[in-house]
Amino acid sequence: MIVMMGVAGSGKSIQSQMLSDQFGWKWLSTGEILRAHITDERREQMLLGKLLNDQEMIAVLDKVLSEYRGKEVILDGFPRTVPQAEWLLGKVESGVVRLDGVIHMQANEDVVCARLLARGRPDDTKEAIAERFREYREVTLPIIDNFEAAGIPIYDIDGEQSVEAVHQQILRVIEPVKN
Ligand code: AMP
Questions:
Q1: What's the rounded Cα separation, in Å, for the pair 7 and 141?
Q2: Torsion of CA 157, 141, 7, 103, to 10 degrees
Q3: Phi/psi of residue 2, nearest 5 degrees
Q4: How far does residue 58's CA lie from ligand 1's centre (Å)?
Q5: Is 104 in the pocket of ligand 1 (CB under 6 A)?
Q6: Of 16, 28, 30, which is best to mutate to test ligand 1, by the most ligand atoms within 8 angstroms of its C-beta?
Q7: 143-164 burial, b for 16+ CB within 10 Å, e for fewer?
Q8: pLDDT for 16-74, tens place per residue?
């Protein structure tokens, strides 16, 4: 498994899909899963740019991961909080999941804000974008420390480059993983 991490608009989904197409890895996006199984409560939280609660997300992941046990997976959008990261690392420790590394897409908020406003998903309003950035900085970024403490490799990628240039950079850093 590879975890794809990055603020909204950093390109994690497109890059995950490119890797998925190229290597046949299963792309699992929690945002896509939630949009496919939307409820009024989920929609409300997502439109505000708020993270859904950990129990709910862990239950979603537990189910989907059991469907893809033993397969190569790119996890896009999970974990996003310390409890989610600790849950996943628990799975790694118990040998249920093999986590090869974390791809950390880095991009300046002004750059990704412009991309998101151009994309225009319903949750891409100025207010929801600001909230997602704040949660990313305060709640999601600290999980890097949990991964580091667990000895998981973190690959920093410059997400401000073109889609193709980012893809090439990812291919270079994950070279050892794919072999
Ligand atoms: P994304 O498609 O990754 O941008 O996710 C869209 C929205 O789904 C986020 O803004 C959150 O509201 C929700 N979401 C997706 N993944 C998670 C997660 N791991 N934990 C909590 N909320 C999530």
A1: 9
A2: 30
A3: -120, 140
A4: 12
A5: no
A6: 30
A7: bbebbeeeebeebebebbeeee
A8: 999 999 999 999 999 999 999 999 999 999 999 999 999 999 999 999 999 999 899 99
51 lines ligand 1 (CB under 6 A): yes
How many CA atoms, within 13 angstroms, populate the side-chain half-sphere of residue 18? 15
Residue to mutate (ligand 1; options 34, 57, 113, 133; most atoms within 8 A of CB)? 34
Q: What is the pTM of this model?
A: 0.96
DSSP calls for 62-89: HHHHHHTTTS-EEEES---SHHHHHHHH
Pairing relation of β-strands 2-6 and 73-76? parallel
